[in-house]
Amino acid sequence: MSQIELSQASTIPYEFSDHDPEFNDELHLVDILYPECPNESVEHEQPVSFFNAQDSDNASDVGDDGYLYDAYYDDSSDLDVDNEIENDLVQQEKRPIDQLEDDKVLKFRNDTCGCREFHNGTACSKVVNFDELIGYRQRCMEMTTEERDLVVKSLLFSHRHTGANIQATGKKSKVRERASQEYYFMGLRVCRSLFCFAHYISKNTLGNISKSLDEIGIVPRVHGNKNKPSPHSLTFEDRNQIKKFITEYATENALPLPGRLPNVPQKTVLLLPSDRKVIDIHNLYNESAGESGCRSVCLKTFRNTWSDLCPHITISKPATDLCHQCQKYSFTLSQSGKLTEAEKQDTLKNYGEHIQRAQGQRTHYRQQTEESKQLYINTNPMEGSPPCTLDVEYHYSWDYAQQVHYPHHSQQVGPIYFRTPRKCHVFGVCAEGSGKQTFYLIDESQCTGKGAESVTSMAHHYLQFYGIGEKHAQIHFDNAAGQNKNNCVIWYAVWRTLIGLHETIALSMLVAGHTKFAPDWHFGVWKVKWRDSNAETMTQVAGTVRESSRGCHNVPQLVDDPDKPVAFYSWKPFLEQYFKPVKQLSKYHHFFCSSVEPGVVYCKEYFDSEEVRVNILKQVPEKNAMPVVKAFPGLNAARQWYLYEQIGQFFKSDLAKDVVCPKPCVPKIEIKLDTDCDVKVGGKRRNNLLT
């Protein structure tokens, strides 16, 4: 790329100049690192120093191009140094193949073609225009083999003598034994060496092309082994033997999957355990082939044959957080040798029904999210609207993420791996319609637990500050009984319909083990950013959440936010005075409550199951009554001293260290264990911190 192209490439289009200030700042830094050369003939809108040399009082400082060089350089010798460095870089960056071509051209120019026959003793390479010769050679180098063959054949055909007899002046004609060839380049008769050099071919290649011209005419040459089987290729018996081995191995070790693969729609998929890879099975095949006298094959051939003949047999990938029920069925089928045929069919039937239920629940979730997305596009509702003001159905989902620790650095030192830095709990509430998820970041000193009351408190805060004011809410969460699937969450939903915050609320859960949904996607996007980030305070942790999505789809929410503070309430004792527990709660996946029937909950096992009506109302709650706010537990003395002594040394900022791991105000009290105590470390008395 030329200097002019570089300058034009860094020009910001007008339509983008005011919409992305971060991008403009990055381009400004690039301009500082790579300033434009002053001797370029490029017209700039605002040159650094440009004027007519005739109008200058000091013409010695002005170059022929009208630039004042002193504005760029303090010493003119720097230009020569830059040119030398640039030339050295060009020499260093030349590829070996390019250097070899330059050597060939230089040798041919100096040594010439060695021909003295056609131009009064002058070599052909000195008669032709050498620059045109090199340009023609480079164009031939860019051609494919087929294109170059056709060009050479056409030129050979124009000056090739292949008649049956040879005519001679004053002599009798005689039978032609071989064809006679004349070579021309740019209208001049040349020798064979120059003709080969110009077309980037060797003399042997020229002979093969001439032979092909006599045999098949002006068509591309075809290799003699084309469309012929290799003598080392597998026979039908060899491929059949590999297929038989893979099939028998799958019969003994694979698990049938109640589904299909996209490329194998008509066969039952067999999943092999992930403890053995293809290379391990290939080694087993070669051992078996050696014992039985069959042909051994390489790994690539074995893999390709497997893909061609047995695509329905595949190796499962190692995974975590799997469905316990699916693994239970898989293990039972792996021990199918101990089962009767009826037991096998019954297990397969139950396995298939389980997969169908999971797929049905997933389809129900997708339908609700698609409706919310379309609603958001059509109405564009405002976040934080007053409750129960918009007569629409809107979908939310929430879940906990794995906690993170801070201080966190992308280049983490080794010793901190064996310590426990300060913890940050993460809870996310996603509105699938807008595609935004709010991340609740709870410091360990602010965490009142991860149970139902904390989940209900954060859901209450979200619907108050981030809800769109819908009258009908649809909520999805996982099957965690201690957090979501419990009476406290159901009571809270009924309570909202009774005091007028919603008209209807539908609570839904995916099948246990098949609960990956929108919040997990947002958590994954954030974790990608988190691995490459540095964060030493809760504010910086919130910054990583905000920066993880350029479209502002991840929104951080701190507990002590001055504008939207989060309060944790004692919901369970407050709600149990108004509602009764739902019996056999764990078997249901859908709950529905409405203000039309106060205190009534409709329960369904699956989305297409029959409803069960349950009345859980004891008494109607007061409209303005709220539960008691919980106090933050804070950090005990042992944890404060641990953070100060063990974690404080890993901070890069003293200010962040003073905020996160300050020196405790509580004195460090030590007690000595009695000598008759059973707890000893290395034969010495152990000092314990009194907490």
Structural write-up:
With 691 residues, the chain is α+β, with helices and mostly antiparallel strands. It has 6 domains: 1-34, no CATH class; 48-91, no CATH class; 97-163 and 179-216, no CATH class; 236-318, no CATH class; 364-615, no CATH class; 637-689, no CATH class. It has 21 helices and 20 strands. β11 (422-431) and β12 (436-443) form a beta hairpin. The longest helix has 39 residues, at 341-379. Mean pLDDT is 82; it is low at 1-10, 37-77, 260-264 and 675-691.
Spell out the key features of this protein:
single chain, 691 residues, nine-stranded mixed β-sheet, 39% helix, disordered N terminus
What's the topology here?
Blueprint: H1 3-9, H2 21-33, H3 77-93, H4 96-111, H5 124-127, H6 130-142, H7 145-158, E1 160-161, E2 165-166, E3 174-175, E4 180-181, E5 183-185, E6 188-190, H8 192-198, H9 203-216, H10 236-253, E7 255-257, E8 269-272, H11 278-292, H12 299-309, E9 313-315, H13 324-334, H14 341-379, E10 390-406, E11 422-431, E12 436-443, H15 452-465, E13 470-477, H16 487-498, E14 504-509, H17 518-531, H18 538-547, E15 554-558, H19 571-575, E16 590-594, E17 600-604, E18 612-615, H20 637-647, H21 654-660, E19 670-672, E20 687-689
Parallel strand pairs: 8-9, 10-13, 12-15, 13-14
Antiparallel strand pairs: 1-4, 2-3, 5-6, 7-8, 10-11, 11-12, 14-16, 16-17, 17-18, 19-20
